[in-house]
Design goal:
Elements: H1 3-46, H2 61-65, H3 76-85, H4 91-94, H5 102-106, H6 115-130, H7 144-154, H8 159-166, H9 170-201
Length: about 220
């Protein structure tokens, strides 16, 4: 081969080598993305509600955007359980982080601007969404989770009494109670996401009211 031909071959080899290296890099990146995409999808689901700032809030918008909704916290389900345990009044309800929920803020007008009552109303609404249709039944499986929450936290009955009424063991009652609280937390999360989506669709991503303050006094139980 002549000198010119050698240079042409070398140039072709260089470009081919570079193209192959780029191809290997692309394949490596695509392989990595296959592992990342499920995690990204999960993060998007967890971030289903866009953090919002009240229209009259004195906070900086950027600071408000960095303040996540309570439903994004890994402690969300524990907060739901705590609030239920003081359903008719107590520090776990009065000082609950759930008071920061948009749905609670939106319910303030129906609760005489009392955040504790507003939270109790929202918990009650979520519980009603778990209630099956028809007359209350203490033996049907589809009624079990609702009955446990309603009897345990709304009526305030003792564990043994509830277990006897539902014909299950106390240990099974505790297991089912954890499941029921998880389902109630899921309903609350869905309510919050729906509320945020409706606000965004209406062109008002922030609530019209300042986020509910957490009162210092403890509401007396019924």
């Amino acid at each position: 081969l002549g000198a010119d031909e050698v240079r042409v071959v070398e140039a072709i080899l260089e470009r081919t080598t570079s193209a192959l290296a780029d191809r290997r890099l692309q394949q490596s990146m695509l392989a990595s993305l296959r592992y990342l995409i499920p995690d990204i999808d999960r993060m998007q689901q967890l971030r289903g509600v866009i953090p919002y700032a009240a229209m009259d809030s004195e906070r900086e918008p950027t600071a408000a955007l960095l303040d996540p909704s309570p439903i994004h916290s890994p402690e969300f389900e524990a907060w739901v359980k705590d609030a239920l345990s003081h359903y008719w009044g107590g520090p776990k309800l009065t000082h609950s982080p759930l008071i920061k929920l948009r749905t609670v803020n939106e319910t303030m007008a129906s609760a005489d601007d009392d955040p504790t009552r507003a939270l109790r109303l929202v918990l009650g609404q979520a519980l009603e969404r778990l209630r099956p249709e028809g007359k209350q039944n203490f033996t049907a499986p589809e009624w079990l989770l609702y009955n446990i929450l309603e009897m345990r936290f709304v009526q305030g009955r003792k564990v043994r009494e509830i277990a006897d009424r539902l014909a299950i063991s106390e240990s099974d009652l505790y297991r089912k109670q954890r499941v029921a609280i998880g389902q109630l937390a899921r309903v609350l999360s869905e309510m919050e996401q729906t509320n945020a989506a409706e606000a965004i669709a209406a062109g008002s991503p922030g609530a019209s009211r300042r986020p509910a303050p957490v009162p210092m006094s403890v509401e007396k139980s019924r």
